[in-house]
Amino acid sequence: MPRSLPKTDVVIVGMGAAGGVAALPLTNAGLKVVGLEAGGWLNPRDFAPDELRNNNRNWPQTIQKAASEAPTVRANPSETAVQGGHPMMNAVGGTSMHYWAQSWRLNPWDFKVVSSTLARYGRGRIPEDSTVEDWPISYEDLEPFYDKVEYTVGVSGRAGNVQGVINSAGNIFEGQRRRQYPMQPLRSSPFTDLMSSAATKMEWHPFQGPAAITTEVYDGRPPCQYHGFCNKGGCHVQAKSSTAFSTIPRAIDTGNLDIVTFARVTEIRTDASGKATGVEYVKGNEIFFQPAQVVLIASYAYENVRLLLLSKSSAFPNGLANNSDQVGKHYISHHQGSPVAALFPEDLHNWYGLPAQGVAIDDWADDNFDHSELDFIGGANLWVHTDRKPIGAAKMNTFGEAPSWGRGWKAFIARNADRSNTSYIQKTTLPYTNNYLDLDPSVKDSIGLPVTRITARYRENELRIAAFAQDKMEEWYRAAGATHVLRFGLGNAMGATTHAYGGTRMGDDPDTNVADRWGFCHEVPNLGILGASLMGTSGSRNPTLTVQALAWRTAEHLANVWRSRTA
């Protein structure tokens, strides 16, 4: 039998980007919180500025339990799913330890894709097999929480729309915000200046992207040192605003947060009425039961779905909160593939730096441009950044100008190591009927539990966006002076990614959504969900800030209506 522990007000499963934020407003409200984290504490010494260690060996992600839980992937139900890699990192702070730290708000259009498309283009523009819905909340509803997160964790950037006043140095397409970012953006580089100048001459609107990275002393942490080894590892000076260094220490300081590390949650328990009573977890060789009045799961999209499906009972024979058969549905993986690479005739002075140190174009994102003569809805954010290191440079594409080995290859690399760049393009992705998550019937993790199975592929809408975005990216590179441009394939199957959405979508209709507009399950009112699994659309940019804003909103709501949620 599991060892039962003292009851707490709230138990949070996963102390990463979402759970680490939610803990702060809950503990500030005086609620007792137990945070269960599958990994341990990491410190700056774990993340030395070492390209081989952080960027190629991918430490410490590769030694975490998540490696054994990697989802299996297939494009169609007729295929056999194959297990690949897992993008998660188990640690206090979770993926906010090793993410790129790009901290974007969604565009107002992303919250109302259906209604906006119907009004502007008509019903025929929405793909027939798409299950897309408008969000139950608007950008304006979430804006106060975007603001709270930006100022609490520390986000650098330059606003383009403060209370309706447009600043062309920022993103002129963004939704209205109440104030400027708390810090100036990361510095530009000769290369990003070159790309910005080219875009301006084309009458596009370049701007430096927002990042959860300090550019000045902030909350006792130093500014970024621009060493550039943090795109797969953590920051050795704590300039990256991981929840492990921002919100979690503040929550601990309240005296209301206890974190249990290396706790592997296996089941959410319910009583006869279907109310959540707590969670079971494995730590070492012992099984524990943590009772709680409210359970919040923040274990990443794949694991949120898996945990619900594993938590079967007489009240929920098909998995917790799944009597409507919506758990795992409406899955989206951001179409991040189909990049474009370019070769320039001179050095770009692009050594080191970091992926969040870049310049963006949103002219072709969301519905920022007229789609009337196009055969898709949505768009793409175009991004180029300063991030060049010796090992990475040695792996550069030769653009058909040299062999892939030998003396000719060495000469090409020596001459062109600082002359190439590969773009990062994020594209709108819609949910579809046959894109979903479930449990793999045959592949198990290290303790014998089935892993998540991804069944999903990109559809014509996403592939057309990708081709369109490649056209625009090539145009941008050519305008900046590139002599060679390469386009990569558009992709098909959706593999495991750090930009996974859906599976527990939020919405007012319980027949088509798992969670309500506050992030609590329709079928289990004291079970809340944190993370991108709530999101019904992807937008054209990174999800982390939206995930954190939603988490803060859910936690603040819970604190405000505690009696009714726990009755």
Notable characteristics:
FAD/NAD(P)-binding domain; four-stranded mixed β-sheet; 12 helices; single chain; alpha/beta; 567 residues
Task: Please explain how this structure is put together.
By secondary structure, the chain is an alpha/beta fold. It has a single domain (3-69, 86-566), classed as FAD/NAD(P)-binding domain (3-Layer(bba) Sandwich), CATH 3.50.50.60. The chain has twelve helices and 23 strands. It has helices at residues 19-28, 51-56, 113-120, 139-154, 190-201, 247-253, 301-310, 390-394, 406-416, 460-479, 544-560, 562-566; strands at 3-4, 8-13, 33-36, 72-74, 82-83, 161-162, 165-166, 206-208, 257-260, 264-270, 276-283, 286-297, 332-333, 340-343, 358-361, 380-385, 420-422, 424-427, 436-444, 450-455, 484-487, 500-501, 527-529. The strands form six sheets. Strands 1, 2, 3, 9, 10, 11, 12 and 23 form an eight-stranded mixed sheet that branches. It has a four-stranded mixed sheet with strand order 5-4-20-19. The longest helix is centred in the last third of the chain and has 20 residues, at 460-479. The protein is globular, with a radius of gyration of 23 Å. The chain starts with a strand and ends with a helix. The model has no long low-confidence stretch (mean pLDDT 94).
Mean pLDDT: 94
Counted up, domains total 1
How many extended strands? 23
Question: Would you identify the regions where 5 or more consecutive residues have pLDDT less than 50?
Answer: none
Rg from C-alpha positions? 23 Å
Reading off the top of the CATH hierarchy, the class is best stated as Alpha Beta
Largest sheet: 8 strands, mixed
Strand portion: 15-25%
Number of helices: 12
Give the name of the CATH architecture: 3-Layer(bba) Sandwich
Distance between the termini: 28 Å
CATH superfamily: FAD/NAD(P)-binding domain
Q: What would you call the shape?
A: globular
